[in-house]
Structures are given as C-alpha cells and as structure tokens.
Write a structure and sequence with these properties.
about 30% helix, 10 helices, globular, single chain, alpha/beta, 9-stranded mixed β-sheet
C-alpha cells in the first residue's frame, strides 16, 4: 500500500469479487460500489450470462474467466461470494497472495476448517472477515438498542421462516454433503451469529435438522436450542416449510420483553435494485414498529411501540476498509466465524445422535 501525505486522501483499496450469482450481484456488488474507500476492479465468473451482467453493472471492472487470472495482480481485498464448497480454497489462495478476505457465510464446512483459515490469515498478516451482515439488520439493531430496557435477557427466539412448496434447485438444494446445501448451512449462520452476539458464548446445543417437504433432498426445517454460558437460552428456527410467519424476534428479559414482527428489508431493497448510497437507506417503513413491554418499579407492565433502527449493511464495507488501514475493528471477526461454525457443528452432531452436545473453546470466542 503506497504512502500518502497528510493532505492527500488514501487511494481506494483494490477489490476482486469472486462470483456473480445472487450473493455477488445482489449483495456484495452494490455494497462495494457504494463504498468510496474501495474500488471494485475485477469480477471473476465463468458464466457468460453473469459476465454480461457484471459488465453492465460495473463497467470499470475487469471481468475475468478464472481465479487463475487473479493471483499475480495487486489486489488489496478479495471478496469470496461463490458456492459454499469453494469458500475455503479461494480464501486460502487469496490470503497466500497477500490479500485480506471477506468470505460469505458459511465461511467453511466445520469449525476446524474456519479456525485453520483464521490462523492462516494471522500468519500472513491479513484480515479474514466473515460476511456477517445480519449484525447490521434493522430488526437486530432494534433488539440491541432495547437490551437495558427489558432487564437481563433470559430467552431469545429468532425465526427466519419461509414457505416454498417446491425446492428452487441449484447447489443449495443438493443432497451431497460436500455441496454444503440445506438450511443449517444457508440461514443457520445468520441466526447463530446473532444469538452469540447478543447473549455470549454457547455452553450446550440441541437441534432438529429435518427434511419435511416431499421433494426436498436436504434439510429444509431446522430448530436449534443454545444454552449460553450466561444462563440464557436461544431458540432458533430456519425453515422453508413454514406457511405461518412468526415474529422475527421475541426477546424476554427479567423486566419485560421486545417483539419484532417485521424482518429487515435491506435484502429485498437490494434485490429490487436499490442503492445503498441513497439517502434514507435502511430506514424501515411506518407500520413495522416493534412492541416493547416493560415493568415499572411498582410492577405495572406498560406497552409501547418502538421504531425499528435503521439497517446499516452499507456500513459493512467502510468498516472493512478502515480495519485494513488500521483505523478501527472489522464489522465481524474471524473468531466470531469460528464460534458460529462450532455451534453449527454441534447442531449437526445433536441432530444425528439425538443428544445435547456440550461446547468448549471455539464457541467461547464470541460475545
């Protein structure tokens, strides 16, 4: 990275984006484009249709056919937004080429693989940042804001539930374990990361990881219970087979509780072509307020509505750039990725063996 004088702004950090499917096109591409501190200089995809779309969306970026075209170029940051099974190999090679790396979830298939990747990044003095953008959801930020108002949280219920009668197909719905498909890998990292971020390290995990739709070949309905070291309990549900949408969050504390019915809208806005740099980004519409109930000192319970916090996915990459320059922490850490993966490992084991799994070490790295 070249030196600059105090009066000269630093040049944007150069970025290569691996993959231009849903994650690369809808999430990472627009968020990178909205970050002045970063310059999206190359996109890697071998699909002709995606190449055409990438050139239209990012006309100043080189569109490359293969990862082999990347390693000899001086990129500062690699963003890995490809199929799950390719995350670790591409991140490893990027780290060896001297790049910091943002890796979409799940970072790797096991906690051990994520831990090894994190140690590899540290040894090469670059950053490994998991794309835990859900820490910047409007609904989750609303929960964080009202922690003190409801006392000590003892139960956290989190749900991402959809209803798709027929699987969409693609690698996410493949039965082979090495494809890393299914709900536990797909949405499980989101709800697990949020639970650990809110309530701290996990002590025990129990899970039901099921296939319930007749045409499904990989898990489509998952329920995970986490007993935290703090004594709190998280109940996490991710499903493609739930026709009744339950509240996104129900949070119970010793002096009250908070219920958030509406989900963060940033994904839908990005999918509709929204610009993360536009004024008012992340502001939720009227009618999506949370319900807050809290006890007064005399025991009387009062109820009020609370507006949802502004969603801040557009802060993710500015925080990455600042961390790369040594000007602040990253938006999520490698240790948090390891801890999240450790809970998912335990959930898989619990579902297969029908037991409660105790955790140590890795799962204590977040909180």
């Amino acid at each position: 990275m070249p030196d600059v004088t105090p009066d000269e702004p630093p040049r944007p950090l150069s970025v290569v984006l691996f993959g231009y499917g849903l994650a690369g096109r809808v999430f990472h591409g627009p968020l990178l484009r909205a970050t002045p501190a970063l310059s999206l200089d190359a996109i890697v995809t071998s699909d002709p249709g995606r190449q055409t779309q990438a050139r239209a969306d990012h006309p100043t970026a080189d569109v490359l056919d293969s990862a082999d075209d990347v390693w000899d170029r001086p990129f500062d940051l690699a963003v890995v937004a490809t199929a799950n099974v390719t995350h670790v190999p591409l991140a490893t090679r990027s780290i060896e080429a001297g790049m910091s790396v943002v890796v979409d979830k799940p970072v790797g298939p096991t906690a051990a693989s994520v831990r090894d990747l994190a140690e590899h990044a540290r040894a090469n003095r670059v950053l490994l940042v998991p794309f835990h953008n859900r820490g910047l959801d409007s609904d989750f930020l609303t929960v964080l804001r009202h922690e003190d108002a409801i006392g000590t949280i003892h139960r956290f219920e989190s749900r991402i539930e959809r209803f798709r009668l027929v699987p969409k197909g693609g690698w996410r719905d493949r039965a082979e374990s090495d494809q890393m498909g299914g709900m536990l890998y797909d949405l499980g990292p989101h709800v697990t990361y949020q639970a650990l971020r809110l309530l701290g390290p996990a002590r025990q995990v129990a899970a039901a990881v099921r296939i319930v739709r007749p045409e499904s070949v990989t898990d489509d309905d998952v329920v995970v219970t986490i007993w935290h070291e703090s004594g709190a309990v998280s109940e996490l549900t991710v499903s493609q087979a739930s026709v009744f949408g339950q509240p996104r969050f129900t949070v119970l504390g010793t002096r009250g509780g908070l219920q958030v019915a509406a989900s963060d809208s940033q994904e839908a806005v990005l999918a509709g072509g929204g610009d993360p740099a536009a004024p008012g980004w992340g502001v939720e519409p009227a009618g999506t307020e949370a319900v807050l109930r809290r006890a007064l000192d005399d025991g009387t319970v009062v109820e009020e509505t609370a507006p949802l916090e502004r969603g801040r996915w557009n802060d993710f990459y500015p925080q990455v750039a600042a961390a790369m320059r040594g000007d602040g922490p990253p938006p999520a850490t490698a240790d948090e990725a390891v801890a999240t993966a450790a809970v998912l490992d335990a959930a898989r084991e619990s579902a297969v063996r029908g037991v409660i799994v105790s955790l140590r070490g890795d799962a204590a790295a977040i909180g």
